[in-house]
From TrEMBL:
<protein>
    <submittedName>
        <fullName>Ribokinase</fullName>
    </submittedName>
</protein>
<dbReference type="InterPro" id="IPR002139">
    <property type="entry name" value="Ribo/fructo_kinase"/>
</dbReference>
<dbReference type="InterPro" id="IPR002173">
    <property type="entry name" value="Carboh/pur_kinase_PfkB_CS"/>
</dbReference>
<dbReference type="InterPro" id="IPR011611">
    <property type="entry name" value="PfkB_dom"/>
</dbReference>
<dbReference type="GO" id="GO:0006796">
    <property type="term" value="P:phosphate-containing compound metabolic process"/>
</dbReference>
<feature type="domain" description="Carbohydrate kinase PfkB">
    <location>
        <begin position="2"/>
        <end position="274"/>
    </location>
</feature>
<keyword id="KW-0418">Kinase</keyword>
<dbReference type="GO" id="GO:0005829">
    <property type="term" value="C:cytosol"/>
</dbReference>
<dbReference type="InterPro" id="IPR029056">
    <property type="entry name" value="Ribokinase-like"/>
</dbReference>
<keyword id="KW-0808">Transferase</keyword>
<dbReference type="Pfam" id="PF00294">
    <property type="entry name" value="PfkB"/>
</dbReference>
<comment type="similarity">
    <text>Belongs to the carbohydrate kinase PfkB family.</text>
</comment>
<dbReference type="GO" id="GO:0016301">
    <property type="term" value="F:kinase activity"/>
</dbReference>
């Protein structure tokens, strides 16, 4: 798993106060977070051996996050401790929806020299989270000999990255950026996904509709489930973890798609982005 690592502070409040006001916090969680770490946690919970490639600072917070990842069953030998940097922080304020406050300096992004090429070459699947610099993402994708899963939309090098990908996953906005389509319906998303073929699988989210999956010779639209949504923060991360896990163990695209949607639905029912997929 190549992606972001951060301290995730989740604050649940009844309402966000106006300027000069205060509000009591009903629930507080401090966990290992960031999209890369969330996906790695989900993979480990599902039973996959997983290594995390990302950057933390050389502070006590970074040390604690590495220890937490190791306790979650994640190999942490490729996590970089960046000298003279504070570990990234994401504050997730959950009230009527969610709001993010982020401290994620550029020095906490991966650099090409940070990548453990031997580890990437030996992996059965490599998930590349595209919040990282495109040049770094491309180096990781090109080094991979197993399945390459791209999550998100790159700022640059779109064609080069897509050429390396076996599986592409994007939310609604990212899907529009990747394809140039305006997506309003599931049919729009299916047609947009077909623009990226041939691929093992393309998965696009469609706001207020659900998820569409397209593969060679097939397609599937899974409507939004009937779950009480508390916080959508980690839904996409759980989705990617479950999709990657299922495809890597040999599931077909329909079964992999349904497990991904189930994992996402389970994650959005609680505050914060940390998945809870053990036993699925």
């Amino acid at each position: 798993m190549v992606g972001q690592i951060a301290r995730d502070l989740v604050l649940v409040v009844d309402e966000v106060p106006d300027a000069g006001g205060t509000a009591p916090v009903r629930e507080r969680r401090e966990v290992l977070g960031g999209k890369g770490a969330n996906i790695a946690v989900g993979l480990a919970q599902l039973g996959a051996p997983v290594a995390l490639v990302g950057v933390v600072g050389d502070d006590d917070v970074g040390e604690r996050l590495i220890a937490r990842a190791a306790a979650d069953g994640i190999a942490t030998g490729a996590v970089v401790r960046r000298p003279d940097q504070e570990t990234g922080l994401i504050v997730d304020v959950v009230a009527d929806g969610w709001r993010y406050l982020e401290h994620l300096p550029d020095d906490l992004l991966l650099r090409e020299e940070d990548l453990p090429v031997d580890l990437i070459e030996g992996a059965a699947a490599v998930v590349v989270q595209l919040q990282q610099p495109p040049e770094v993402a491309l180096k990781a994708a090109r080094a991979a000999r197993g399945r390459v899963v791209l999550d998100g939309a790159p700022e640059r090098l779109r064609a080069e990255l897509l050429e390396c990908a076996d599986v592409v996953r994007a939310d609604h906005r990212e899907a529009e950026l990747l394809t140039g389509w305006t997506i309003k319906t599931a049919d729009d998303a299916v047609n947009a996904a077909r623009e990226l073929m041939p691929k093992e699988l393309v998965a696009f989210a469609v706001d207020d509709v659900g998820n569409v999956f397209v593969w060679d010779g097939g397609e599937l639209v899974v409507p939004l489930g009937d779950v009480e949504v508390v916080d959508t923060t980690g839904g996409g991360d759980a989705f990617v973890a479950a999709l990657t896990f299922a495809l890597t163990r040999g599931d077909g695209p329909e079964d992999a798609a349904r497990l991904a949607v189930e994992a996402s639905g389970a994650t959005v029912t609680h505050p914060g982005g940390r998945p809870e997929l053990t036993g699925r």
